[in-house]
Amino acid sequence: MTETKKQVENLFRYEYGKIIGVLINKFGPSNLERIEDAVQDALLKAMQVWGYKNLPDNPTSWLYRVATNNLIDVLRRDKKILLKGDDTTILTENHVRIPEIVLESAISDSQLKMIFACCHPSLSVDYQIILSLKLIGGFGNGEIAKALLKKEDSVAKSYTRAKRQLKSNITTLDIPIEIGLQSRLSIVLRVIYLLFSEGYASSTGSEIIKRDICLEAIRLALLLSENEYCNRPNVNALLALMCFHTSRFDARVNENGELVDLEHQDRTKYDNDLIAIGIEHLEKASKAVLEPSNYHLEAAVSYYHCIAKTFELTNWNSILNLYNLQLKRQYSPVVELNRIVPYYKVNGAKKAMGKLLEFESSTYFKVSVLYYAIKAELLLRLGSKEETLGALKAAIDLTENEMEQKHFLKKMVELRKVMLDDQ
Amino acid sequence: MSNFLFLFRGGDAARTNQTPEEMQEHMQKWGAWMGGLKEKGQLVDGLPLAKEGNVVKKGGEVITDGPFAEGTEVVGGYLIVTANDQKGAVEISRGCPIFEHGGNVEVRQIMSMDM
Question: Which domains does chain B have, with CATH numbers?
Answer without folding.
Answer: 2-109 (3.30.70.1060)
